[in-house]
Design brief:
By secondary structure, this protein is mostly beta strands. Helix content is about 15%, strand content about 55%.
């Protein structure tokens, strides 16, 4: 379930990215705070599996570009909330950046209780003007957990072989969208 939710979160961000392919940072995201985006996922038979609802909480300009805070809510097929949280994304020049640590649900962090958690991560980079066949930089995230000064867990997540596979139009009940196909291991 957590892997699916992390993937859905990343997918939602990629849809935002692919929907506004331009070299203007503001083109990546909705312009207005409070804007709500809803993404519904379906199984192979067309039955609804759940939704991800993202709301632009805060947008601020920086010297380097733009920083956005998005609130997320993930609900199951019965419209029952499964997870909620927020994540930050940024745009600088013609590149969009997503902090890999955003892929860890807040509930997972809270479940660690009294453990000391240290997360270091890269920002996954996406170009504004992607080209089919283009390779992208790898990403790494390291999680260290300790209790009373004793290290009890080290985990490293690698996102490698990142590539823009191509582009296609996807038709949904909300309309037809130009989308970027992206793969990684």
């Amino acid at each position: 379930m957590n892997k699916s939710i992390s993937f859905l979160s990343l997918l939602g961000v990629l849809v935002l990215l692919s929907a506004f392919s331009s070299d203007n940072c503001e083109g990546y995201f909705p312009y207005k705070e409070g804007t709500r985006l809803e993404y519904t996922s379906y199984d192979k038979k067309g039955k609804e599996e759940g939704k991800m609802i993202m709301t632009l909480q805060e947008k601020k300009s920086t010297d380097a570009g733009l920083e956005i805070t998005m609130a997320t809510e993930i609900v199951d097929e019965k419209n029952k909330e499964a997870l909620n949280g927020s994540f930050g994304i940024r745009c600088e020049g013609d590149k969009f950046y997503f902090d890999m640590s955003n892929m860890i649900p807040a509930e997972m962090m809270e479940s660690m209780g009294e453990m000391d958690m240290e997360i270091t991560s890269d920002y996954l980079e996406f170009p504004a003007n992607a080209v089919a066949g283009q390779t992208l930089p790898d990403g790494t995230m390291t999680i260290k957990a300790g209790l009373n000064g004793v290290n009890v867990m080290n985990m490293t997540v690698l996102v490698t072989d990142r590539r823009i596979d191509g582009f296609e139009q996807v038709t949904t009940p909300a309309g037809t969208f130009d989308c970027m196909k992206y793969s990684f291991t």
